[in-house]
Amino acid sequence: MASIVSERYALSLYEVAKDCGKVESFYEELSQAARVFEDYPEYLKLLTTPSIPLPEKQDALKQVFGGKAHDYVLNFLLLLTEKRRIGLISEICKAYQDQYYFEEGIAEVVAVTASPMDEALQNKLRDKMRAVTNKKVILRNEVDPKIIGGIVVRIDNRQVDTSVKTRLAEIAQQMNHIIA
Hints:
By secondary structure, this protein is an alpha+beta fold. It has helices at residues 4-20, 23-39, 41-48, 54-65, 71-82, 89-104, 119-133, 164-179, and strands at residues 106-113, 136-143, 151-155, 158-161. α1 packs across α2 (23-39), α1 (4-20) packs across α6 and α4 (54-65) runs antiparallel to α5 (71-82).
């Protein structure tokens, strides 16, 4: 869960994006920036090190994101660095995503399967989730061979588990109760 500080920064950027009509593109750019910091933690460390002067940090941001991100997004990253909040970038990105999805009526659905789902099955599940939620659905398929078969569907704070692993565990538990 994002902190109040992260939510306020995210909401501020969201409001600017909304005014510009660039909510989705700002989200994509902010997500890309967050991924850069996740993939290169030493880069984030550079921006959070107190002994490095602010102008050097700002130059480092401009070199990486200048010309690739909208000026407002770049200025947002510069502001986060100046206010020593750049370490919250992942939280801020998640809070922005939550606001974006809420405003646009989008539901993120995670389907965990033992092997990758083919396109037809993904479309079928997406359609079913769209009918259930009455929202646009973004479907993400995660593969976990440990579930053996079936599917685990996560949406918001709910989970539907029809995996073979869970069914076998339930049968084993029932057998333990019968035998014991």
